[in-house]
Amino acid sequence: MSRLSALRRASARIGTTLDEATTYGELTREAALQMDGTAAVLRGEDAPGAPYTAVRGDPALLPDAGWVLATAREKALSWEAGHVTSLPRSARPVLCVPLATGSDSYGVLVCARGAVPFTRLDAEVCILLADRAASHVRQAREHQRVSGLVGKLQSALRVEPGRPHPNLDVATRYLPAGQSATVGGDWCETVRLHFGRTLLVVGDVMGHGLEAAVDMTAYRSALRYTASADLPPHRVLRQLDEIASSEPDRRPATCLVARADPAREQVAVASAGHLPPVVIDAQGAASLLPVPVGPPLGTGLGGYQSQTHRLAPSQTLVLFTDGLVERRGEDIDRSLHRLTEATFAADASPEQVLDRLLAGLGAHQAEDDVALLAARVQAPGQDSEAAGPDAGED
Predict the structure, then answer these.
(1) CA 202: distance to chain centroid?
(2) Which runs of consecutive H residues, i.e. helices, occur in the chain?
(3) Which helix (H) or strand (E) holds 259?
(4) Cα separation of 351 and 331, whole Å?
(5) How far, in Å, CA of 394 to CA of 391, rounded?
(6) Which among 344, 350, 270, 342 is positioned nearest to 303, based on CA atoms?
(7) Residue whose C-alpha is closest to residue 56's, from 73, 42, 81, 37
(8) Percentage of the chain lying above the pLDDT 90 cut
(9) Integer angstrom CA distances of residue 268 from 160, 204, 248, 318, 361
(10) 85-97 pLDDT tens trace
């Protein structure tokens, strides 16, 4: 294999990830092999006397790090054309190459070996390797900067659900898909209504990541505005559909709206393309609650209907997004059947119900976002202490 072919392959092995430390390690590994000596990096932000980074080979061959940095700062490193320098005051041959792209400097690649002086060809090889590494370090830092901005934006988009009436015990959970996201298109919400009623909502915006999260925030804002009119669930969905369909860039979403009325031990439910809720009875058995299903929000088709069911204090209502149950290659009916096979302790609280569902269905390994909400009517007298000064608020 010619040296040119070997150099091309060596260069291709630098910058395989967006991790800066990994790139330094790949650079010094290839430089040490090509120079048949020792290679290390002195980062530009390191103070004089700081240790070398990613040392490959015998560290005893390397010159004093503080001296290298001082020399680099006193004069531009050069080899006639202005790129590298051989440090004559060193006891052994040393080659230093700047790690830089344009006006951005990331440090110095330092190569050393026992006795054989470095040649112009050696310098050109190191320049090529250093240029490639510097380019990838720049990309890594830019990726880190953008990721930091995305993380701040995601944190700003994370909004906790509102407080339900104290006559309702509510718990919520949210698990974003993937390792880098903290928020996505799935959401849940609770809104206090008049006469002790509470609106319970889960929604699922099409897609993942930041774009879906932005639309999710828009749907939540529209829901809070619409809910203030105290409309029945099907009319809430109709209003949300009209708002979303008037904005051409808004992503469609599924949504399930339940209006809990503890005083009447009732819940009215309407669905916009969403999976039905689950009711857990006094014995801890789970069953699906039948709900008329209309089209997803944002289609402009309307046609939503509400259906009222009994919700006794001994029952727990669970609303969830499809990430909780859907699995690749599995029919949705089978997925829902697995959910109804779950059993719970008769006195399980909403918090315990959600913990049991997440663990039993392996939701932490789900490929999609997961949002779920559990609600249980407080038995008479049970909420007197928790109600506080606004217990009688309508």
Answers:
(1) 19
(2) 3-12, 20-35, 65-74, 120-157, 209-227, 233-245, 332-340, 350-360, 384-387
(3) strand 253-261
(4) 28
(5) 9
(6) 270
(7) 37
(8) 41
(9) 23, 20, 30, 14, 27
(10) 555 555 678 888 8
